[in-house]
Design brief:
It is a single chain. With 184 residues, the protein is α/β, with parallel strands linked by helices. The chain has 2 domains: 10-95, Fe-S cluster assembly (FSCA) (GMP Synthetase, Chain A, domain 3); 111-181, no CATH class. It is built from 4 helices and 7 strands. It has a 4-stranded mixed β-sheet with strand order 4-7-6-5. Strands 1-2-3 form a 3-stranded mixed β-sheet, with helices on one face. A hairpin with a 7-residue loop joins β5 and β6. The protein starts with 9 loop residues before the first helix and ends with a strand.
Amino acid sequence: MAVGSHEATSHEATRDPRAGARERAVWEALAAVPDPEIPAVSVVDLGMVRSVEVDGERLRVELLPTFVGCPALDLIRETVAARLAGMAREVVVEVSFAEPWTSERITMEGRRKLRESGFAPPATRAPGSDGQPLFTTITARPTAVCPYCDSRDTAMENPFGPTLCRAIFYCNHCRQPFEQFKAV
């Protein structure tokens, strides 16, 4: 086999040519499934969908939980299954721990939607970290960018928000409390 060429596997050789369009339709349907705790963003926006497989009459979706103990996980799985019902004879929605979900998986659109709904999205890089991923940088005073006025003059009020994935901050500039989706 020449370098750079691709030898088709038996699965690819027998793959339904309509699978690509069906898979796109599944992703579009998933983009309409809101997170039950933050309905402004979808499970796709949050990067919770690890994979989608369309194989004949079977549709399989693999979800990554944002936190291991997420209380909304069963509801999310049920909502995804209900949304995809009718797209295949068999719909399987699985929760996977094959790889850890990180806040880096949140899409730019998801970050925009979080900000517009009053949540500070998690930082992707820590200020002054020279581009190092956030999880490798330890800060003495956690801060977040205020979703209302874009100020960095904020303070964490409580690391324990209403759910495991959120913390409560206060903006010293506009004096608004807000929640931040935790960086993981």
